[in-house]
Design a protein that fits this description.
The structure is a homodimer of 280-residue chains.
Chain A (H helix, E strand, L loop, with lengths): L2 E4 L4 E2 L11 H4 L3 E9 L2 E2 L2 H14 L7 H14 L5 E9 L10 E7 L3 H9 L1 E7 L6 H4 L13 H12 L4 E5 L12 E6 L2 E4 L10 H12 L3 E4 L4 H6 L2 E6 L3 E8 L2 E2 L4 H13 L2
Parallel strand pairs in A: 7-8, 7-13, 10-11
Antiparallel strand pairs in A: 1-2, 1-6, 3-4, 3-5, 5-6, 9-10, 9-12, 12-13, 13-14
Helix pairs in contact in A: 7-9
C-alpha cells in the first residue's frame, strides 16, 4: 500500500485527490522530482538526492526546496510503511498553483518496487538506442532546454520506453544526434572494459547518477579505474558489459542492444552488484 | 472565477484538489491539452482543436479522447461561466493513475484571459530567438520526441519564457539548431512580406496552429497568398511583419526580435486582425 506524506510531515490518503487542476506541475510538467531507494528503513544516497533536487530547482528558477520539509515527509512515509523491505520513495516538488502566491507543491510518496524491476535486476534487459534529438553541445549552449534537470516533463522519456517495447526491448539508451551515448530515460549508463568503469559526463546534457556515483566510489576504493568521459555508440557493443543504474533498479545488466546480444556479462554484473552492495 | 467541469458534465470546485499524486499527468507530464478561445459563449475552432487533441493522443499512444465527453465538459463550463466575454478554455487529458486500469483523467477548465495577454494583443511584444536544441529532421527521424504533440511536458517551454524575461523580452521564437524558425512556446509564427503570409511546416517538429490556419483561410479568401514553408532566422528581420498566433493571444505583433526593432507593422497588424475577426 503506497504511503503519501506532505512536507509538514502529515500523512494523506494517496487514493484521494491532492493536487488542484491548476497546479503547474500538472498543467505544464513544471516541477522536479527524485526517487530514493529505501532498504530496511534506510534511505540510500539521501544527500546526493537532495543536492540534485536543489540543483534541479535552481535550473528551473524554483524556490530552494526545504530540506527539513522533505526530511519530515520522508520520516512520515518510513514510519507508516507496512510493505516490503524496499521502498521507492518519490519526492515531488512543483511550481505550485498558476497565478498563486508562488508556494510550491511538495510531497513524498512511498511505493513498492515493481515486480518487473525486480525481474530486470535479476535477469537483465534488452535495450535499444534512440536518438534524443539534440547534439552533444546543446546542454552548454541552451540551458533553457533543462538538460540535466530532473523535471516532471517526462512525456518523451515515457514515449521512448513505448518505442522500445514496440521494438521488443524493455529499455532505452538515448544517444545524441551526433552519436554520443547519453543515458536511459530513468537511468545512468555505465560501460565496463577490463577493470575500468565509464559513464558519460553530465555536461553532455544528462543527469549525474546517484547510483552510478555510489558504484564508482566503491569500485575506486577496490582499485578499479573509473572514468567520466564521452562514449560513442559503437563502443557499447565492444565493451565487456553495459549496465543501466538507478536508485530503484540498482545496477541492471544490459544483455542485448538493438537486437544484438552482447558478450555475457553475468559474472561482471555479479562483481558490480557486490561493489554496489558494499556501500551500504 | 475559473470554472472546472469533468467529462461527465459535472462541475467541480477548481480550488479543491481533483488529481491524485500518482496521476501520470503530474508524475510524468504524460498527457495532452488544448486551449480553446470562447468569445460571447461561442468556442472558436472547436473542430480543429479536437482533431489536434485526437492527433496528440495518437502520438502518445493514449486512448482516443471522447468527443462527447469534452463536449459535455465544454457545455458545463460555458453554462456556468459568470466572467468576462472571453474564456480561455483548457482541455486536459492525462494517461490516468499509474498502475491503474488505464482510464485517462480528463477535464475542462475555463479561465479569464490574463491582463498581460490583452495588453500584448494591443501593444505587441518583444521576442528573442532561442535554440530548441534539435535540427529540422528530428521530428521525422525520431517520433518518440513527440515534436508536434501538445503534451503536458512544457517545462522547457516555460523555462524559455523565463529566459526571454531575463533578456528583457516577453516571448520566444524557437529555432532549430540549424537555424530554421520553429514556433513560440505556446504560439505559431507567421511572417508577412507584401501580400504573402508564411508559416513553417508542421513536419519540422512544431504544432499545426489552429489560429494560424483560421487566419490563412481568411487571408486566402481575400486574395492574399499563403505559404507553409521553411523560414530561416534572417528572414524574420527582412519581413514586413512577424506575428505570433494562438487561440488566446489571437494574432499578436512582434515589434522587436533579439533587441532589434522591426519595421513598424502596426497597420499590417490591423489588417490581419480584421482578417482573423472576419472568420467569426
Amino acid at each position: 500500500m503506497p504511503v503519501l506524506a506532505l512536507l509538514d510531515g502529515t500523512i494523506a490518503d494517496p487514493t484521494h485527490p491532492l493536487v488542484r487542476v491548476d497546479d503547474l506541475g500538472l498543467m505544464r510538467g513544471d516541477g522536479i522530482f527524485e526517487t530514493v531507494l529505501v532498504v530496511d528503513g534506510k534511505p540510500r544516497e539521501l544527500e546526493p538526492h537532495f543536492d540534485r533536487l536543489v540543483r534541479s530547482a535552481a535550473m528551473l528558477d524554483m524556490p530552494e526546496p526545504s530540506r527539513a520539509g522533505f526530511d519530515r515527509a520522508t520520516r512520515a512515509v518510513l514510519g507508516n510503511w507496512t510493505g516490503g523491505p524496499e521502498i521507492a520513495l518519490k519526492w515531488v516538488y512543483t511550481r505550485g498553483v498558476e497565478g498563486g502566491d508562488g508556494t510550491p507543491t511538495g510531497f513524498a510518496l512511498g511505493l513498492e518496487i515493481a515486480d518487473k524491476v525486480k525481474r530486470q535486476r535479476a535477469d537483465g534487459i534488452a535495450a535499444v538506442t534512440l536518438d534524443r534529438g539534440f547534439d552533444a553541445d546543446a546542454a552548454a549552449r541552451a540551458p533553457w532546454l533543462l538538460l540535466g534537470a530532473k523535471t516532471l516533463s517526462y512525456a518523451v522519456n515515457m514515449a521512448a520506453l513505448r518505442e522500445a517495447d514496440r521494438r521488443g526491448a524493455e529499455e532505452v539508451i538515448f544517444t545524441t544526434s551526433d552519436g554520443a551515448v547519453l543515458e536511459g530515460p530513468t537511468s545512468t549508463l555505465i560501460a565496463v572494459s577490463g577493470r575500468t568503469l565509464r559513464t558519460p559526463p553530465a555536461t553532455i546534457g544528462i543527469l549525474p547518477g546517484t547510483t552510478q556515483a555510489a558504484l564508482f566510489r566503491a569500485a575506486e576504493r577496490e582499485g578499479w579505474s573509473v572514468k567520466v568521459e564521452p562514449i560513442r555508440v559503437p563502443e557499447l557493443t565492444e565493451a565487456d558489459g553495459v549496465f543501466l543504474a538507478s536508485s530503484v533498479r540498482k545496477v541492471t545488466r544490459v544483455h542485448t542492444i538493438d537486437g544484438t546480444q552482447l558478450t555475457d556479462s553475468t559474472a561482471l554484473h555479479g562483481e558490480l552488484v557486490r561493489l554496489y552492495d558494499s556501500e551500504y
